[in-house]
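Z., the sequence and structure:
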Amino acid sequence: MQLDLKADCRPWPLAGYAPGNYTCKCIDCEERFSGDKRAIRCLECAAVVANQRLQAVQPVPVDDGFQGFVPHGSYCATEGCGNFATVHFIRGGVGSFYCQECYLKVQALGRSPSSTGRQSG
């Protein structure tokens, strides 16, 4: 997916840019530009950053057919794991990001009869 500034509705602020009449200095290219008094990027650099952010959110297929989204650089929700997350697992309206190994463990726990908290007998 690519952000097209000509076709899109141009939502402001866009990755640090907003239109205005103040003279600002871009934190990326260090060029001067006209923008909002709080703008930190020129429109061109903001478009690059916005496109990078769009590409960082990648769809991840899940076994049950759900198409989850994992933000780039997210860590696994399992305490002490430390791996990067690759799966967005949602159950009961609550979603968590897991690495593939932890996701398979969570799936197995969810399928076992003892995970319901009910005692037999």
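The chain has two helices and six strands. The mean pLDDT is 75.

Let me know what you think.
H.
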